[in-house]
Amino acid sequence: MTDAVRDSKMFLFLFLSAFIVPNSVVAQEAYNETQVCYGVLGCFNNSAPYNNSFGDLPKSPEELGVRIWLFTRDNRSSHDVLNYTDASSLSDSRFDPTKMTKFIIHGFSSSFEKTHWILEMKDKLLNIGDFNVVAVDWSKGATFPDFPQATANLRLVATEVKRILDMMRNMGLDMSKVHLIGHSLGAHLSGYVGQLMGPNVIGRISGLDPAEPSFKGFTYVVKLDKEDAQFVDVIHTDGSDFDLLSGGFGLMDESGDVDIYVNGGQKQPGCKDGVDGLFGGGGSSLENSVACSHGRAHDIFLESIDTTCNFTAYPCSSFEKFENGECFNCDSGCTSVGFNSDQYSARGKFFVDTHHKPPFCGIPYHIKVYPDTAAVNTSGLIYVTLIGDINSTDYIPINSKNQHLNHLTEISSNVVFTIDVGTISSVQIKYERELGFLGGLFGSSSAPTFSIGGIEVLSPTTGQWSSSCRGTYQLRDRTPLTVITNSGRSADACTVVG
Predict the structure, then answer these.
(1) What secondary structure letter does DSSP report for 287?
(2) What is the pTM of this model?
(3) Which residue of 71, 367, 423, 447 has the fewest C-beta atoms within 10 A of its own C-beta?
(4) Which residue blocks in 31-135 are alpha helix, DSSP H?
(5) Of the listed ranges 368-377, 387-396, 488-497, the one predicted with least confidence
């Protein structure tokens, strides 16, 4: 089963859930409180706070068939099987208690062998470090379509992982060297492992867009929380409220020591989610699937493992302020998205903008284009390229496709470029009018020219504004115009115009 098909099935389950939620609430109040016990793993009940799975209890270890596999640099393509009931499975393996130990834990309707990002993450981790890499495959307990049952099952899976960690500790592993990386339901599973081990015992948990269904509004006891490890970093990518149009599989709540909201944390550029992705994706792969924004979290973490790009996230109180260019400084401490986040001391809420496709990391410049009173009504795209003393960028659009433009239009947005240009000396601006039906074969209602009143650019690397003088800049269709810029804002003293 491909990732796209698997994600589509997940959506269909949630699609149906949208219609049964009112009845489910009643059912949740009506189910019988009970418990099940599974030998050394202990007993599990469905009483509060574990009432987030509509009464479902974890299935037996035999039914779940959890597989825990160890990979090292000595056995990249094979694996040692670890068994929570057999300490010799660990002592006889290639596990080295002196090394950092990374766990990879998938979410709903996924598996180790059939999910590309898990395999790629295992390989990337072993490429950059001599780690113990442990993959937890609980696919039999996270199968479509039973999301509530998967929510219940993760508690038993976490208990098995906890017993493996106890064996590792008995062999001499310092728990501060343990790093759990979990996506979606796997993020909450990781948090439950941390809770079982004790507050702030595990070194680190990375939550990749923790799941919202069955967890939103419930106590921290059942979901990932910053007390679950010494350092908890969370990447949010799909946190819009779940509905049939937009998806929204991820949780927006601040859950860690560091919470990074990628492109605002609700929806990712280049993604079609929900019904739009299911029926409008043209049969394409995960890029246009229903859970594209949800999966962007693990794609970004993957990239962060070995990227040379400085994946900087900026502290800010809101996405609106960040998009308005008010938070492009690290005076109160920035952090790095993903793998290297623990190398920074900053804590709190952070924002980062990315490209719409790999490589996602880039340099986010804030660009503001002022309106001109002489501008005519039209529609089209405005492109810019930045020219500095180090580099120049490619052209990138700074407004939405076929946006209506007129004398009141002010464009203000963060635009992610691939390179740092240094001190900006000029900006090239290009207007491309909307051609309309059949590429303008029968003419276009859009104007051949559009005028702007000036441009300002804020560099995140220098923290400085570069601005043109205010005036009328006439843009002709598909013809670049070079505008000389000066240091400071447009309202400041300005002497040079090009």
Answers:
(1) G
(2) 0.89
(3) 423
(4) 61-64, 88-91, 116-128
(5) 488-497
Answer yes or no: is pLDDT of 352 > 80. yes
| Domains (range + CATH), the chain | 3-352 (3.40.50.1820), 363-487 (2.60.60.20)
State both tokens at 281: 């994706």
Catalytically annotated residue among 3, 209, 233, 253: 209
Please check whether residue 414 is in contact with residue 456, taking contact to mean a CB–CB distance below 8 angstroms: no
φ, ψ for residue 441, nearest 5 deg: -55, -35
Q: What is the pLDDT of residue 272?
A: 82
pLDDT digits (tens, 9 = 90+) for 294-304: 999 999 999 99
Plot region of 422 (φ>0 → left; ψ -120 to 50 → alpha; else → beta)? left
Average pLDDT value for residue range 419-437: 90
Amino acid letter, 496: V
8, 110, 184, 214: which one is catalytic? 184
Residues of the chain with pLDDT > 70, as a percent, come to 86
Q: Alpha carbon of 269 to those of 244, 294, 339, 396, 419: distances in Å?
A: 18, 12, 22, 14, 19
Of 433, 431, 421, nearest to 457 by C-alpha is: 421
> 477 a known binding residue?
no
Catalytic residue, from 179, 188, 294, 366: name it.
294
Six-digit token string for 366 = 């804030």
184 in active site: yes
Q: Within a 13 Å sphere around the CA of 308, how many CA atoms are in the beta-carbon half?
A: 2
Let me know if 366 is a catalytic residue: no
Residue 285 annotated among the catalytic residues of the structure: no
Which tokens sit at 323? 């998009």
- Collapsing DSSP states into helix, strand and coil, what is residue 272? coil
The answer to the question of whether 259 is labelled as a binding residue is: no
Here the tokens at position 161 are 């992982």
Q: Enter the DSSP assignment of 32.
A: P
Q: Which residues have CB under 8 Å from 407's CB, separation 6+?
A: 371, 372, 373, 374, 375, 376
With cut-offs at 50, 70 and 90, classify the pLDDT of residue 278: very low
Render the burial of 2-29: b for 16+ CB within 10 Å, e for the rest: ebbebbbbbbeebeebeeeeeeeeeeee
